[in-house]
Amino acid sequence: AAGVIQSPRHLIKEKRETATLKCYPIPRHDTVYWYQQGPGQDPQFLISFYEKMQSDKGSIPDRFSAQQFSDYHSELNMSSLELGDSALYFCASSARTVANTEAFFGQGTRLTVV
Amino acid sequence: GEDVEQSLFLSVREGDSSVINCTYTDSSSTYLYWYKQEPGAGLQLLTYIFSNMDMKQDQRLTVLLNKKDKHLSLRIADTQTGDSAIYFCAESMGGGFKTIFGAGTRLFVKA
Asked: Cα–Cα distance between B60 and B13 in angstroms, integer?
């Protein structure tokens, strides 16, 4: 079965550069979530989208922005990167219109800022 | 508010049972999950339980839910060295709502 696809799997950027992470949800899933997991930390919720509209916002820095496109894929844009942005970024998707469905996580993108 | 708490470390001998405990605060949670994360890897969903269930068994894994006390546990029978990982307890209200994770319990399995 198709899973949540994230690209790239690994990314190395320098301080003050920008990065774009992509997430392709499971087909027919309408909700996408982004999480950030720092070294030794638990995943922290950043932001979510439902039907291309932001539906919930967590601890996402102002330097980050995200959007969901008409094909339901989502991109997380990160600007003015800092060393502390080095983390594993997870995307998850779910089908809000189906009652009691859980979110499925991608394998994550490991961002290293040097 | 939303909060998920779990102990940070657990050490067991190979072949013994492991029990990882978790408490949560959001009584409206519909799903309660256990994820496994090996070093440098992604989140692997091990099992989940609906809030209207007391127990769920899946091969070596047994999940117990005490909804009154908001306590969730994961029992791993016949623990193997390959079970060494971080185990995250998580909760969600389901479709469309974010998942809240605990800090993770690092399980060490001694041969």
From this structure: 16
